[in-house]
Amino acid sequence: MAPAHRTAPDPASGPAATSEPSGPGAAARPAGPAGAADAGAALTERLAQRLTAAADPARAPAMRAYMREQFPFLGVPAPQVQAAVRAVLAESPRPDAATLREAALACWARPEREYQYAACVLLRRHAKVLDDGFVDTARHLIVTKPWWDTVDALAAHVVGPLAARHPHLTAVLDAWAAGDELWLIRTALLHQLTYQAETDAERLLRYCAARAGHPDFFIRKAIGWALREYARTDPAAVRAFVAAHPELSGLSRREALKHLS
């Protein structure tokens, strides 16, 4: 049974976390069928027209500075990114999985960050259309131009729903959690963020325990965030886990126990 989902931040909702330097790595671009490539390119072009029309260059420097000068920006506020996606979808045929894949890849290839935000909104709106093969594309998106803003949205709203519908993908997440790529580890930790009572607690706590002593801010924050969300469902389990793992960072512990008296 697919889990009941709790709302988690997406990149078009605006900034929501502290930043630290990103990890390396990028995957080869997954291939797709030619027809889907044309449809995806057309969808991306319509998005580009909307986003360009909404651009406010005066906003771009502050947006770029918030993201540690890693990405150029058009200066499109989050609500207008969402509106652009809605408008394009309203005037387009309902996209299938292959078209969504190609549109996301085309958006990721464009320099301005709003295109990646638009892709995340697009994928979230049509997450149920994606098949299990999309996990390879998701991996590419996660490790290409990686930062918390897109990675967290993909983890909670793309990879999480994929794994819920296709349980065999948990083997992929196990491999990500055990690997060396920072952003894939974070994705594995956060992919159940909206699962609530359907959370696989054994898997979640196993991932957190395995990375409890990790030195990176983003992993420590992800552990605390994942535990904090699960504490809404089973606070006793989270208290017991934190008590049993003194190697957890102070950040992870504070985040995990944030809403527990």
List keywords for this structure.
globular; disordered N terminus
Structure characterization notes:
This protein has 261 residues and is mostly helical. It is globular. It is built from 13 helices and no strands.
Give the SSE map.
Layout: H1 34-54, H2 60-66, H3 78-90, H4 97-109, H5 113-125, H6 134-143, H7 148-165, H8 170-178, H9 182-190, H10 201-210, H11 217-231, H12 235-244, H13 250-256
Helix pairs in contact: 1-3, 1-4, 3-5, 4-5, 5-7, 6-7, 7-9, 8-9, 9-11, 10-11, 11-12, 11-13
Shape: globular
- The separation of the N and C termini measures 32 Å
Mean pLDDT: 90
Biggest pleated-sheet summary: none
State which percent range the strand residues make up.
under 5%
- Count of alpha/pi helices: 13
Unreliable stretches (pLDDT < 50, length at least 5) are 1-7, 13-27
In terms of quaternary structure, what is this?
single chain
Structural class: mainly alpha
Helix-strand pattern, N to C?
Answer: HHHHHHHHHHHHH
Whole-angstrom Rg: 18 Å
Helix content: 55-70%
Q: Got a strand count? A: 0
